[in-house]
Amino acid sequence: MTDDRSALWLAFVLVGGFCAYSWYWYIRSFIFYFRNDFDFSKDFGPKFRSEFAEHDQDWVKPREKFLFDWPIWVLATSFFTLVTVLALVGII
Fold it and tell me: Cα separation of 58 and 80, whole Å?
């Protein structure tokens, strides 16, 4: 196994882990909010810090996390996992 292949396998394991984690929490969040009639007054899942926060304790609101942050994480990690798999297979 060459150094390039081992780096690709390491990238696959790391990015694949983040991808699985993102999908897991997004699906759990969807099920939670679906069962609660999309009541975003309750927070669920891991917390995200807001980029526009003035203080260190400012967290992203549940609605923003569900509609923007998780989908962005899911799409980004899925894209990088797909690119890594295509590179391992030899298509890229």
Answer: 29
